Amino acid sequence: MKIHSKEEELLSIINSFEEGKHFNTIANKIISGQRIDNDEGILLFEKASLGLAAVFANYIREKKHGDLTYFNRNFHIEPTNVCVFSCKFCSYSRLYAHRDEGWQLSMEQMMNIVKSYDNKSITEVHIVGGVHPKMNLDFFCDLISQIKQHRPALHIKGFTAVELDYMFRKAKLTVEEGMQKLKDAGLQSLPGGGAEIFDEEIRQQISADKVDANGWLKIHETAHNLGMHTNATILYGHIENYEHRIDHMNRLRDLQDITHGFNTFIPLKFRNKNNDMSYVPESSIAEDMKMYAVARIYMDNFPHLKAYWPMLGRNNAQLSLSFGVNDIDGTIDDSTKIYSMAGSEEQTPTMTTEELVMLIKQAKRIPVERDTLYNVIKNYSAQQKEFDTSLN
Ligand code: V47
Ligand code: SF4
Q1: Which one of 5, 76, 169, 283 is CB 3.0 to 4.6 Å from 287, fit for a cystine?
Q2: In angstroms, what is the span from residue 94 Cα to ligand 2's centroid?
């Protein structure tokens, strides 16, 4: 019997697809580890069937990570949903004039949230919220130092570039000065939010008044230069087209070539409940899976691709593990409202470690608990074997 290499296998699978012959150049690039260009990214979105895109994305995923699939134990603090901005897709924020309809947590309330995890083996707190005009840089430096004093080993991932841009401008500090101050207080990494879509025209239509693409990228570059790791998101499935998605990923890929500071790319599906864009239909699950697959193929220099289950729903997050995804975020403990308020099926997002492990095992992948920086805390591969035999 002839033994086929993985590469030969990939080429023969590609050629079994009707449209396969149009994708030989892309297949050869993927096999030889070369990156695809923007036109090829658009071709994948427009002309590749979902099955073909999945074959490419899965090949890359398995080359990078095998079956390993990461999750972590985390909770969120959302200090406020009061926001000076009014992004059209946002279901969560309230303007300052309507602050009575929203929430604004005091330092004590936020520290009580942190303390409520004292006996739990949590490794990360993710802090993200609206842009409140009275919660300034000093307030957040104080919050970070108090958390660090209370629980030094807890990794603090906090603040989108949108929140940071506003804080730094109000404090009349440069991005470098502001970021250094937060780092000195104990901030360790940045989440990927606020990126939305970088294209200037689309950004103008959906979130006109907040930090622009260059401002977002500059903040992440500065964090990288200070040795911090960050994530990046894309908000897709609204009024953008495939060119805009590729342009967005291209700007991130270019910055990553310079800094290598991004850990994870997180496509965020637009959810359309209770916001000013409710007239825009949500993308289909097939479209969501295509987005993950093309992201995995195009973003060759991003180590990880995450499906954020509170937004996508746990079943679809499980499905995404066959479309290039190798991370599904964490336990969450019902501590975020951004997606439940926008209509996600996960109205009280909480998963135990056991549930996350089972979700990953059912998809025939190997669960790995990680910390924020992808250091392995526990690899469940030994138990995977037991699971496989119990199925026979
Ligand atoms: O920037 C807001 C998005 C983001 C809606 O880095 C919406 O690990 C869809 O960035 N439909 C904030 N998306 C959340 C975020 C994030 C989440 C999980 C993990 C990480 C990480 C980062 O949420 C915002 C915006 O793009 N968002 N409203 C909506 N209706
Ligand atoms: Fe404010 Fe963020 Fe909502 Fe925009 S997405 S309105 S910046 S909370």
Answers
A1: 283
A2: 9
